[in-house]
């Protein structure tokens, strides 16, 4: 395997990767991001997504990606070895797995009247929560995720790391205003709102049609703009001694209740 060693932070390629690691606007401009870790590399291979480049930590990388790395190298993927300190500057986690794939991403325009289930992120600003939400949605069978302009980037390296490969099984739309949801998706808009509405478990038939589940920011919850376009407001009945749920946990409860109801409906037919 041929590779280039980079030991200086003045290197142009390193400077570009540093921007991809730190600047979400640059991710959008370049149409590329960084996916760190053996699991993400193996997921890319399984989905036949060839990276634009592979970046390795000088101190070594897990053997489990060896065959994939050698194949991609033979297919012409550029490979680079970074000094440990440089690698750590672009890794989304401390003491990462030692391999990062630069991945091309393509922004897709919103559909019109798409008949599908959707998870909408309204101002969710923590990239770890964003990745967890994408992973949870895909696990529950919801593979379309849209996010407001003030949400964290769906494609940031930290969100990718938390998503554990789910990004590559989903369709992702960023900078989507809540007022665009009605025209884009033929689905019932459901607001997950701890402040009021109807009981998630006792309210009938909200799952009968495709849904857009709207999840709000950590702390303030859904914006007034999101609540104004909701067809229904639903709350999770939690024990009074607990003030609230993390947005990732709330999404898991709602999306898997939706899946449970639909599976049950199938068995009753």
UniProtKB/TrEMBL annotation:
CDD domains: SpoU-like_rRNA-MTase (cd18095). GO terms for molecular function: methyltransferase activity. Residues 11-101 form the MRM3-like substrate binding domain. GO terms for biological process: methylation. Keywords: Methyltransferase, Transferase. The keyword Transferase applies. PANTHER family: RRNA METHYLTRANSFERASE 3, RRNA METHYLTRANSFERASE 3, MITOCHONDRIAL. Belongs to the class IV-like SAM-binding methyltransferase superfamily. RNA methyltransferase TrmH family. This is RNA methyltransferase. The lineage of its organism: Bacteria, Pseudomonadati, Pseudomonadota, Betaproteobacteria, Burkholderiales.
